[in-house]
Amino acid sequence: MLQEESDLSLIIAQIVQKLKGSNLYAQLERQAWASLQRPEIKLESLKEDIKEFFKISGWEKKLQNAVYSELSVYPLPNHPAAPPEHLKEPLVYMRKAQGSWEKRILKSLNSMCTELSIPLARKRPVVEQKELLNKWNEMGTDEPDLSLFRPVYAPKDFLEVLINLRNPNYENGDSLSFRTHLGLIQVPLKVKDIPELKECFIELGLNTGQLGIDDSTQVPPELFENEHVRIGQKVLAEQDSAAAQQYVRQGSPTALRAELWALILNISSQPEDVLYYEQLKTNVIQHDLLVDSLIYKDVKLTASNDDYYFVFEDYLYQVLLCFSRDTSVLSHFAYNSASPPKSYIRGKLGLEDYAVFYPPNGKIAPLCFLYHEPYKLYQIFREMYVRFFFRLHSISSHPSGIVSLCLLFETLLQTYLPQLFYHLREIGAQPDGQYMLGEHVEALWTSTIIASFLSFETVSKAAEVSKLLVSVLSLSSLSNQVPVLRIDMRRMLAF
């Protein structure tokens, strides 16, 4: 109990410190100072009056959403004596495998630079800058010669690395037993079984309505669909991230999906966000990176040849090129088993003071993301990537990582459909993944958002932490120092 209280206090203090550097904190501070001019704010009840003002004016809800967003990705506290790398990945053999994989990627990238005699980055000539700016919305019509560029790695290369993962402290032996796992993934990680999955995804049960199933043509819309849409509109009107997350567990109406995702991820389109995107666009126009050619080739080989996704080709270029310049993405390496690749200023090789991350967002492998209006929805892509998608190409023991997901699928298939599993194994069937229809992708991503928020015991505990932080930040906004926080932790941990 004491350890839990200490961990929670540490999380609260660190989230307060992080929010103090955000734009939201600056807005709260301005609002708090402005509220002092209001007649209902009394000196003798300053704290309670300001908290009430935040609540009435809607700023308390915005702060709660920010706290909820931070809690959803905040890594679980480690033992105080644990080294910093344990925060990224606790298992040594996983860290070594990820490190070897990164060296392999960097070697491939450097070899390409040497063979083609091209730099990792260069400033575009003025003429080239103007040309790129003029065709920014029509980059799909450009046909550069990319025949000499090769992908940094193929999906089968990454699959081979996952298949060859082994825990040196675990020996399964050659003899088969009822505990033997016959799948491709041979690492002893704890994954959920069917009863545990049913508990996590209880809304998928037969007794609960689910959009996409109970809104079929055979089911009258007044029985479920109409009411679900009405509730969704009410959730959006309330602007509550936790309520939105709970709501989409029963499905997300197509007309409300974009707004619901933005609310769950605590994203709002502010003028400064548009300016930030324009700055990234300017960086793309001014500087040419080697990864730009890899992005071009990746999109040409995938989306441009797909009957469903070719219309998004221009949007993909815009979003991915800007994403490769976004240095804010580097923050997710604090809880990612991967590390951003480094380069050095010419003539300063090996000097850490002259080291730079390449590319600026720390990612080499491009990720195709399909969305409309990139200047508005770029933030949603970035937030979903640093929260969820990065785990699909990083080697780690995280329950949402690619290793655990593959092991979960194989374990369920071997346990509940053993004959099918054995047949596929005997004929040597290999894993295969193809692009899905847009509606299926959206449903999958909705489920991704849902699953990611299940890491904490209850949403109510997160809401309680939010309330405590509202109290802390409402005071600290009027002071140069955060006041000492004294709370009854037992009341919180009783949930």
UniProtKB/TrEMBL annotation:
Any idea where the Rab-GAP TBC domain is? 251-470
Annotated PROSITE patterns: TBC_RABGAP
* InterPro entries recorded: Rab-GAP-TBC_dom, Rab-GAP_TBC_sf, TBC1D19
- Top-level division of the source organism's lineage: Eukaryota
Q: What is this protein called?
A: Rab-GAP TBC domain-containing protein
Gene of this entry: Tbc1d19
